[in-house]
Amino acid sequence: MTVDVRRILTLPEWADSVRVLGGATGTARPVRSVRPMLTPGDDRPVAAGELAVVTEPVAPTDWRIDTLLRRIADADGAGVLISAPGEPLRSTLLLADRLGVPLLVTTAVPLDLVIAARLLLASPDLDRATLVLAVHGRLSGRLRPPDVVVSTLRALLRAPVALLDDRGEPLAGEVSDTTGLRLERVVPQRVPLDDGVLLAHPAGRPALWLATELRGDAAARADVVPPALAVGSDAVERWLLTNRIDRERDARARSALLGDLLRLDGEPSADLRARVANEGWRLGGWHVGIRIGARPGVDVLTREPDVGRALRAEGIDAAVVEHGDGWTAWSTFNQEPTAAQVHDVAARLRAAQRRLRDTVSAYMGVGRPHPRPEGLASTVAEATDAAKLAATRPESGHFLHVDQLGMAQLLLEWTRTDTFEPAARALLAPLRGQPGDLVRTLAVYLDAESSITETAAALGVHRNTVSARIERVEGLLGVDLTQRDERLALHLACRVAG
User: Fold this and answer.
1) What percent of the chain has pLDDT over 70?
2) With a cut of 50, which residues of the chain have pLDDT below it?
3) Its family (predicted)?
4) Is 428 found in the same domain as 316?
5) Is residue 305 part of a domain?
6) Are 143 and 242 in contact (CB under 8 A)?
7) Which listed site, 118, 243, 302, 377, has its alpha carbon 20 to 30 Å from 60?
């Protein structure tokens, strides 16, 4: 391990009491020895890589400081440390800058600094071992949650530390630049920064990363810090494994309780009511079922917080249960919701679905409102049916309300005739082959009840793009989509021949 002036400045004894007055550009000079001298006039030869430490206080105006700076520069030394009651002359500082020789000043006992620096030089692994032991001492014993691990490392490293998810987003702590990380590689990484280095160590499954930014003088510890990160990563992984076991046990209990509710025949028993109350669920009132299915490969247990956040962000207060290959949820009203309230809830759930799909590949179905405990099973069953169809409908954004499902099924039954399909294909023929995927845009637009905003969100394009495409559709087909009859005809045609 190469030790330079920057590295020595990060030692605890030096970091709290030593300042760089001049020659800051030379702090990258390697240090091979640290030699105490009584005065700047000590005329013993200077060795290459030598850091000279003047042990007696020096007057700031002492001309011998300049002489010592020149001797260090001529011998390719590392720098000069003095103990001075005031700032040296400006000419001295300018000389240090011009020579690129660090001029350091301290308020501590110089010989104590010599001892700390010599220990580092004599045993390059000592700092690494000391740091690892300190981290292990703080994090061993009882389990620590990730935010405590991060704050402990931040205090010991005196640098930013963060726990990152598999997209590089911080779950705890903060670092400013993660662009160079290759998150698909589950191995320790070292990424150069403009003025330092980013170190990252994998921590548990799914891929989490414990990362720290070492900038400026702290970058000199880049060879020391990785083992400490590894100890911190082990602490995070132990907490995650234990926490997952607890969460899996709780999830099984919640799923079993939900199963008892969905199989309920008659009034719930006192024991069942007590279990429901313990979970904070409500049996009275009117329930709207929600079924969120996850694509293969999604860790349902780990991603449950994402589901809760997406629903809460849209103002949906719902119980969420890990259930099979996804989540079953429901929202409860004190009284029967009006049609307007149901429409509003559906709109907010659609928005939550879009928000959730930023992090989880999932689809959503929503049931009708049903009252009392027995109604919960009915609305969840409807939501489950709707979700199964939503999984195959990208044009709806993989979202389907059971009311939409009923109407769509009726229309499709009516249009499954030998004569309608050719007519539908002929009706849409002018749109085929046109740029902008006009047939799909029209289908999504009509499914979204002519909402430009909803269509743009489902297609992942700008509102203005959707508006322009719909204008082209009207022009090519010679229709007015504000007319209900024409919308209905095109909607049917898109369903059958789109």
Assistant:
1) 95
2) 407-408, 410, 413
3) Belongs to the CdaR family.
4) no
5) yes
6) yes
7) 118
| Sequence-separated (6 or more) residues with CB below 8 Å from residue 156 | 131, 134, 135, 138, 228
Whether 407 is in a domain gets the answer no
Q: What is the pTM of this model?
A: 0.48
- Please tell me the predicted confidence (pLDDT) of residue 23: 94
> End-to-end CA distance of the chain, in Å?
66
Note whether 55 and 106 are same-domain residues. Answer: yes
* Distance between CA atoms of residues 87 and 89, nearest Å: 7
- Residue range of the domain that includes 193: 124-239
225: closest CA among 256, 252, 201, 242? 201
**Measured distance CA(476)–CA(98) in Å, rounded:** 74
CA–CA separation, 487 and 481 (whole Å): 6
Q: Which two tokens stand for residue 445?
A: 């637009």
pLDDT at 409: 52
pLDDT recorded at residue 466: 92
Q: Say if residue 40 is in the same domain as residue 143.
A: no
Per-residue tokens: 48: 């290459």
Whether residue 295 sits in one domain with residue 174: no
Check the CA dihedral 151-157-158-161 and report its sign. negative
Final residue in a domain of this structure, among 102, 122, 142: 122
pLDDT of residue 1: 58
